[in-house]
Amino acid sequence: MGQLTVDGAVLRHDDLGAGDGVPVVLVHGHPFNRTLWSPQADALAAAGYRVLVPDLRGYGESEVTEGRVLLSRFADDVLALLDHVGVERAVVGGVSMGGQIAMEFHLRHPGRTAALVLSDTSAPAETEEGKAFRNRLADRLLAEGMGGYADEVIDKMLAAYNVTALPKVADDVLGMMRGTDPRGAAAALRGRAERPDYRDSLAAARVPALVVVGADDAYTPVAEAESIAELLPDATLVVIEDAGHLPGAEQPDRFNDALLDFLRTRVPR
Questions:
Q1: Helical pair 182-192 and 97-108, crossing angle rounded to 10 deg
Q2: Strand 2-6 vs strand 9-16: parallel, antiparallel, or unpaired?
Q3: How far apart are CA 110 and CA 122, in angstroms?
Q4: How many CA atoms lie within 13 A of 71 on its CB side?
Q5: Per-residue confidence at 244, pLDDT binned at 50, 70, 90?
């Protein structure tokens, strides 16, 4: 595990593999940590890719920044990580909020973006209703902690049938959610409520993109992924069957096959 200090917070990450392919950064969503990407990180490293997997500030083993953390702060943390390890350009991918951070990274640092991997995410700016919801949820997490929230959303984070069909995956996902510091989760929710619209920057992207979605995603359904893929000039869309909002955890082999095929065929080494 590596670490660096950015804007007053100690941020921790894994740096795996040492192949000659373009390095890959994988950004987790809310309210998880870097271990969400373990199946993908292991597969990529085994296939000869260098993989950087950060804990976002406020999550996992990284320190908390209280109040509000904008997606731009998270994206610049990813840039600081690349600078720290001496990587000029990387494939930047993420799931859900992590996908929005990847889009923000591309918006702010297009020259450092070799390709995008966008899993189960959404490109438009937050609605007024959504802003109010995220801020109310932030207040609730600070007041009550993560346990009740985790129990409520597990059958939306995973396809409902996978909560029982994949008990270890469900336990791991619940453990990540329950273990997240409410202050970090609340700060990210408040920042995410202020996110911009990424559709124009995606439409102007000059890099290849892999768009992945679970067939039964209750949060960002297949139609959302299709709309992102239609915007991007060079997009590959993959729908993962028997999965919900976290297909990389629910169907890791299928996700890994899609990711490795994309890297081999669409991203120059």
A1: 60
A2: antiparallel
A3: 19
A4: 29
A5: very high
